[in-house]
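Protocol step 4 of 6.
Sequence for UDP-glucuronate 4-epimerase (Digitaria exilis) entered exactly as in the expression construct, tag removed. Do not edit the line below.
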Amino acid sequence: MPAGVVDAAAKGVRLDRPATILLRRASGAKQLAAASSHLLFRATILATLALVVLFAVHYPSLLSRSFSLSSSSPSSSSPHRRSSHRSLLDSGATTYRGAAWEREVRRSATPRRNGGLSVLVTGAAGFVGAHCSVALHARGDGVVGLDNFNAYYDVSLKRARSRLLLSSRGVVVLDADINDGALLERLFAAVPFTHVLHLAAQAGVRYAMKAPQAYVASNVAGLVGVFEAAARHADPQPAIVWASSSSVYGLNGETPFSEDHRTDRPASLYAATKKAGEAIAHAYNHIYGLSITGLRFFTVYGPWGRPDMAYFSFARAIVSGEPITLFADARRDFTYIDDVARGCLGALDTAGKSTGSKSGKKSGPAPLRVYNLGNTSPVAVTRMVAILEKLLGKKAHKRVVTMPSNGDVPFTHANVSHAARDFGYRPTTSLDVGLRHFVEWFVKYYKLDDIKSGSSNVLLAAGKTTKRKKSMAMSAAS
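Step 5 output, structure tokens:
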């Protein structure tokens, strides 16, 4: 090796200077790229955080999951398909969580009077459920509603009831199903309900011939779901009042129907599911000490009612000039909604405490109770139609046929002595008065004031002179 080269190597002098310069430049470029990438990553993180903040501010409904309050009516080919519409705080999931949701539910459930009840009302957007929710809130009780808004009948009517509950009473109605066990557990964990008024069910007698599974899913499985949640996941356990039906008397020939009569001959699947519910209630009362009261309703009618019921569908047919079909000799114990709501509140007020606990231990089963809630005055269906004709100022096109074997029974008649004795239940509304209140609401809700008859003036006059307790009347509350 030449001496110059050795000396240079010994002194640490690099002989490939151009290559060294290139290496240094490449290293600097890598450092610059790494720094740029780091800055870009930080900028991306900051931008993402900013978007999340803006999203949370402008769209809190999609982050916190809660209740459904809108009036939009989704179309559905199946009465049992859940409504696709969601509300202020629910993105469509079946689990409810978040501080905002819990705050709103607790607010709605908090009583405003000393000793007030905290009640979970299932089926709160339904006919009886909405009226009972109004009545409970009006006297200072806390109320949280739950309804799946299925399309068995006009969903927009259910949405309208739900809107009324929120706007005039501040009552939250969750858009959810009683078969959602996780939701019920979360709800009982969030609120120590004192009572449950379980009114959610698949209604209707004849429809059971078309969709039998819907009745089993709602009236049997759904009832078990509510009992399970109350028995195993609620602490303390609430007292439960639930809607059975006068249909459990079925082909019983004794009248008036008494709670002491046999109920083992149902005439429809609907009646059979309600009878099954009473047997299930007995089991949960015995095993878990749940305080359970069953109420057998008799043909409830009135403002904000169900369009599938005879009085409602007859009114629509009379107005539109369509024929109506009447069953020969059919008689019903028509019971006005205000009387039924008072009966429901009376049953809640007198319900004993549940005696079980989460561990399954109990000090002794609370009494299992069953009551009729009827009007005690059966009226021929032809008489009901005559009253509607007079109020609407228009004759009905009637077709009278023999009653088919589709689940209907020829007559109902309630003995309410047990309810009168235990919580002072006394129906006070005659069919003439009750139908007048219904027609007043019917004309106003469907904007039928332009009916070409003298009935509109009669209805307006009746509306001015009728005095009703707002605490019990959805139409007055609206």
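Step 6, annotate. The longest strand covers residues 142-147.
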